[in-house]
UniProtKB/TrEMBL annotation:
Record-given protein name: Uncharacterized protein
Amino acid sequence: MMVQYGIWIFDEKVGLIGRPENFPEIFLGTDKIWEIKETRMGPVWKWPVQFAELGWFTPRIADNFNKAFFFAQKYFEGFRPKDTPEKLDLDTRTLQVQTEILSDHFRGTDEELSVRK
């Protein structure tokens, strides 16, 4: 199965593939979607926050990544490590931190900064 959201493709055999313009292709294997990163606000999903710190990761690309990322997590829910914190808390915190980072890099209206609600 393959599903595409903007520059992001979910492939059940590979994971997530990103094709940012003028940058190398990004491969995020299915084992990587469960990685967690500690922040000052608490644990978050690593990749949505880490990518938000990169200049090419615009709010539009972030929105498409989030759709692909959460689709992948839902698809592979049965493989979620049992020791991960509550998913709803992680999802909410991740999107809050990601939005803060993006708003520091991309000034605009709230609508333009909306990542995913």
